[in-house]
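Homework help thread (please don't just give me the answer)

Our assignment gives two proteins as sequence + structure token strings and asks us to describe the second one. The first is just a warm-up. Here they are:
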Amino acid sequence: MAQSENGSKAYLISIVLVAVLGGLLFGYDTAVISGAEKGLQAFFIQGEAWDYTDMLHGFTSSSALIGCIIGSAASGFFATNLGRKKSLILAGILFFVSALGSMNPEFGAFDYGVPTYSLLIMFNIYRIIGGIGVGLASAICPMYIGEVAPSNIRGMLVSWNQFAIIFGQLVVYFVNFMILGEHTNPIIENIGQAVEGVVAPTSDPWTIERGWRYMFGSEAIPAALFTILVCFVPETPRYLVLVGEDKKALGILSRINGAKKAQQILEDIKQTLVVRQEKLMAYGWMCVFVGIMLSVFQQAVGINAVLYYAPRIFGDMGMTNPMMNTVVMGVVNITFTLVAVFTVEKWGRKPLLIWGSLGMALGAFGVAVTFGHAGLELVTAASIMVYSASFMFSWGPITWVLIAEIFPNTIRSSAVAIAVAFQWIFNFIVSSSFVPMFNMHLTEGDDFGHWFTYGLYGIICIVAALFVWKLVPETKGKTLEDMTALWRNKTTNK
């Protein structure tokens, strides 16, 4: 039978598709704020007894990332004790609760539509709950795919998770665009006094009262679908071996790889799991350091400052329809993510990261030089597209591929958790600092914040390219068990 000899591709694809839905929710949850943040800001600015400052809005727009840090840091515990599958179910439930709670944070405790400080706290709690789900999914989805995928196509399949993240962002850009419809985002007037801004009288009240709620609530539909579908996928063979379920692991490996190859893979897994739990630094500090720095650079290059604030950025550039420009950027992002999906096994991980870093640097420096200059708006927009597209075929998907495959089996859960936690910590730093940094002025009306912010991102991109060139091992074509041997040899040869 074809399945027993070669495995079932349909079975593998079906379980990977369910897993990548977690990536879609990851993208959806983190990018939904891009369309909702101006309406949300206008809603809370109207609070009478307190001042909703730019700094406070920056925190509120990024508060989900606090949950992401918590969720990713805890992902190793959940992945080890609950398993990969049950952890993903938990993530789906958290997505669902957060979507409904963020849409109606007044539920059961506050007067509807009254922007109080206590309501702001409750809103942020719901966003943090969703962030915990994102943190779990961000670590465990690529781990799950990496542990079920054959080594010769593992990079491509894990890259589909990044495609799903970007697709989720595109979906929510489009959903936000459709929800907004003929309505317009509110106008926030900066008055330069103790109160940093007020809502302009000409602002559309529907966007302030309801629009942002519908945007957050729309996530409940894909969250419910994901939670249900995960119940029907198997646990990963490598986790099953970890908990002594060799027979179940062999059955799943046989369905994916064929009976003969499955037995060989099972033996390889068992050989690397003779010691079920090793100390984090058992393979040397460099192993963990490389994983952490991959995560740090993925965020420090500044991409999420663009993804989360795209409509605001395009609006500041003078574009007539910022939401439509954001959708176009989403389409570009999807297209270049596919470049990584179909080239990662051919070209390797390192070349894509290095070329992507250089492309991002070019785009970032282009934005720094041209932003705010009359007549150069299209050059600025093109530079942002180059910057974003370069990330999408490199640091976006390839970081997740490497994090899923670079660590040895016996420390993977804890090492992935630490690496992804650092990713979300730097995501929060970049996202929450972007608006105040971008609006910095040395003198009245100058563009210091514009060129400084993107100039800084460009320099970090150059450093990232050097880091990959010197320190990151190539993992193309290697099994997860090969990585155990690679790091063991590096430790032994010191």
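The one we have to describe:
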Amino acid sequence: MTAIRGTSVDIPTEDGTADAYLVHPDDQVPHPAVLLYMDAFGLRPSLRKMADRLAENGYTVLVPNVFYRDGRAPVVELPDFIDTSERPELFQQIMPLIQSVTPERAERDADAYLRRLAECPQAADGPVGVTGYCMGARLALRTAGSHPDRVAAVAGFHGGRLATDTPDSPHLVADRVTAEAYFGHADQDPSLPAEQIERLEKALTEAGVDHRCEVYSGAPHGFTQEDTSDYHPEAAERHWRELLALLNRAL
């Protein structure tokens, strides 16, 4: 097992200071960089553990608190185990935070996150990978579209509202994406119905993006998050295989 080192860092942005988790192999050698976008429950121990796993596989990983405008993580107090069926009051707190991360803010923030990786001595020069979960899948796709010169790999897992009929839908950036893309959808996910899956696939195909979109049978929304009741071990391991294969190819 590769020894790793994780630290908390602060990232200056146009709108303030984003707290984040940075982790990398502890070997004094620069490694390919990965920007990991959180799910709606935010920067917490389970996400740091996911970043650690990427670092153990040879990557320098940055996990920003994208809700930083509303405070440092944890912005919302969370239980150790999140039962998504029993906590409507939790979602009432989280929804305004999600809505506050507008497309314009997301792109400005991505500038700051990618700049921090470019300046990081533990991150190798060259293109980066971006992965995201839940709302983070939308942020990952937007980042790939707004920074095609920096992003060589983009992945999203159990992403919601990726291809809506609104004028600022994430899928509309497909024609600016130059990265190789992979999306792992949950087949039991009301936030990404079949018509949106088809719309995303069509947009990526028509834009000529090298991509693969797969639906994980039996997987609920949130299947990668082991501190929630939506965790699906088989689907989560499949996600790791696909994500690491993508990063190894592209970076």
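TA reply:
I won't write it for you, but here's a hint about the kind of observation we're looking for: Residues 11 and 115 are 9 Å apart (CA to CA).
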